[in-house]
Write a structure and sequence with these properties.
Residues 5-92, 93-179, 180-265, 266-350, 351-436, 437-521 form the Fibronectin type-III domain. With 628 residues, the protein is mainly beta. Helix content is 0%, strand content 56%.
Length: 628
């Protein structure tokens, strides 16, 4: 049996609760197995099959007027459309843009909604605490204020039309940005040049960012905890440290900056000098935030000293010839500066002690001294006589030669080191060289056995000693003038005559030697014999057979001379008047000069009576016998 189409349904009501659908209610039709819902506007027609009432047509446009019809369906076919019922979809939900411009506010904005006459926006905490805030507006934005920082809020908004029918709602979860952290503390770690920053956590903060700025450089660290370490700080800087809290809504305001002054940098431009022997002056340039300075000095014998000052220099006592290790630190409330340059300073060697200087000759001085600490080489200086003589060496003795004789010198010994040079304030020691050697200018025979020696010398104060050296022995004479006399030299001898000068400084070198030969010795045993009335024979004993002699007779009636042949020891003088007293001298005659005039003179009386041959009467000597 073939079934027939069901009856036409009757729409009880059609309404919209969601902007893209309309819900239809009707009374059931007997024999119907389904229903065809149709929504039609000017541009489109949308159909939906449902099995029972109510039914909903989906895919519609918001705020649009539709004609709604319904048909019942079974196996026999479709009924005719029901009488149409008009229904309008509700407004679309506003699409929200939400932000938290500050920790206590949320800003909500949206685009205009078609056919909307106004909007309702509500806000409440997600944890249900507090009251709900609701605002109605015809604008497309509003701001909720006086909210709790860092708190999650649920925001709902919908539009309503001129009839006051609400449209779809839009829900959005928004957290307010966090408040700035409180109680920021900064602890400086001077050893690592870093700062540990801590604070009280802020509600709703997910991340914290710490910024340390010194005006030229910004350092940051991020953390989810309540502390953070800012590394790589610079010495001698002032940083301003602030903390900002972040969450998904944004950031808090930075905290009030906390000032952090780091340790000062190590002092630079350090200079070390001995402003005077025994005093070290250490100076340096001032550094930022250096409130005071400390200088540490350690000598190589282990002794230490330090100086604490707010100035940029320190004085230290020092010893000559020592090496000092010197370091300078700056300090402030944050602590001690890093270690800067460490200096090794070696003071100039001490002036040599136990200085002794003695003349060793007319042109040389021997200088000795005790070794001193830190000396690498010694320099001996002799200043005097319009010149300067130097001697360099590593030994503790030096002989200065090529000096002027009989000259006063000031001798100074300086100790030098490669690092520091020398202490140039060493005391000098006076010393005089030995006298200059005299120069014999003349030797003259003053009398029998008497020789005068004359010399020239430029010595200021000296005693001169003349020495005649020969086979017969040594003869000396001494004088502080320019001549002296040698006496009792043996006749017939040869000598080498030299002179030296002596003074408290020493003895000169001998002068050049001058040869001296004394005259032949006078004969001895002189006797006279008459040869008749008018003749005299003179006898003598010769001192040397090779010497010739000459006889002189001097009387009131005449002078007579005879010179016998070589080798004879007598001489005859004829036609000599008798009855007179004669002075007789027998003198040797040499080929080197005239006869000597210092032989003894004897007086004889020649009478005219008696035998024609006989002894002449000896009347005595005219002077004492002398030797030359």
């Amino acid at each position: 049996m073939q079934s027939t189409a069901p009856d036409i349904p009757v729409i009880d009501q059609a309404y919209s609760k969601i902007s893209n659908s309309i819900t239809v209610e009707w009374r059931p039709v007997c024999g119907a197995t389904g229903y065809l819902l149709t929504a039609q506007d000017r541009d489109s027609c949308i159909e939906t099959v449902v099995t029972k009432s109510p039914g909903t047509v989906m895919g519609l446009k918001p705020a649009t007027l539709y004609r709604i019809t319904i048909r019942s369906i079974n196996s026999g076919g479709k009924s005719q459309p029901s009488p149409f019922r008009k229904a309008k979809t509700v407004l679309a939900a506003p699409v929200l843009s939400v932000s938290s411009p500050s920790c206590d506010s949320i800003a909500v904005s949206w685009k205009a909604v078609f056919m909307a006459a106004g909007f309702s926006v509500s806000l409440m905490r997600s944890d249900g605490l507090g009251r709900m805030l609701k605002e109605n507006t015809t604008n497309t934005s509003l701001i909720f204020t006086n909210l709790d920082p860092g708190t999650l809020y649920i925001i709902k908004a919908y539009a309503w039309n001129v009839d006051g029918i609400p449209g779809d709602d839009f829900t959005y979860n928004q957290r307010t940005s966090p408040n700035a952290p409180a109680d920021v503390q900064v602890a400086f770690n001077r050893g690592a040049l870093r700062a540990i920053v801590s604070w009280m956590p802020a509600e709703g903060a997910l991340i914290y960012s710490v910024t340390a700025s010194n005006g030229l450089l910004k350092l940051k660290c991020n953390t989810s905890s309540a502390s953070c370490v800012v590394s790589s700080l610079q010495c001698g800087s002032e940083y301003y440290v602030s903390v900002t809290a972040y969450n998904d809504a944004g950031s808090s305001k930075p905290t009030d900056a906390v000032s952090l002054k780091t340790i000062p940098c190590a002092p630079v431009n350090i200079s070390i000098e001995e402003d005077e022997p025994g005093h070290l002056l250490v100076s340096w340039s001032s550094v930022n935030f250096g409130h005071y300075y400390m200088v540490f000095v350690k000598s190589d014998d282990g002794l230490e000293a330090h100086c604490n000052t707010s100035h940029t220099q320190c004085h230290f006592q020092s010893d000559c010839g020592f090496t000092y290790v010197i370091s300078v630190f700056a300090y402030n409330k944050a602590g001690q500066s890093p270690l800067g340059d460490v200096f090794n300073y070696t003071t100039a060697p001490c002036c040599p002690s136990d200085l002794r200087a003695a003349a060793v000759s007319s042109h040389a001085v021997q200088v000795t001294w005790a070794a001193v600490r830190g000396a690498e080489v010694y320099q001996t200086r002799a200043a005097g006589g319009g010149g300067l003589e130097l001697c360099n060496g590593t030994a503790t003795a030096c002989t200065l030669s090529a000096l002027r004789c009989d000259t006063r010198y000031n001798v100074t010994v300086y100790a030098f080191s490669e690092a520091r040079g020398s202490n140039m304030s060493c005391a000098s020691k006076p010393v005089a060289t030995a006298p200059c050697s005299p120069e014999i200018k003349n030797i003259s025979k003053e009398a029998l056995s008497v020789i005068s020696v004359h010399w020239q010398s430029n010595n200021e104060e000296a005693t001169y000693i003349v020495t005649a050296r020969g086979e017969a022995g040594l003869w000396h004479c001494t004088s502080s003038g320019s001549s002296c006399t040698l006496i009792n030299l043996p006749c017939g001898s040869t000598f080498s005559v030299s002179a030296i000068a002596r003074s408290p400084a020493g003895q000169s070198l001998p002068s050049y030697s001058v040869p001296l030969e004394t005259g032949a010795c006078c004969p001895s045993g002189v006797k006279l014999y008459r040869l008749g009335n008018n003749g005299i024979r003179v006898y003598w004993r010769a001192s040397d057979e090779k010497i010739n002699y000459s006889t002189d007779l001097h009387g009131s009636k005449g002078n007579f001379t005879c010179s016998p042949s070589s080798g004879l020891s007598h001489c005859d003088i004829t036609e000599i008047p008798c009855g007179d007293v004669y002075m007789v001298v027998v003198s040797p005659v040499t080929d080197k000069g005239p006869k000597l005039t210092f032989c003894p003179k004897k007086i004889y009386s020649v009478t005219c009576s008696g035998s024609s041959v006989g002894m002449v009467i000896y009347r005595g000597k005219s002077n004492a016998e002398q030797r030359i």
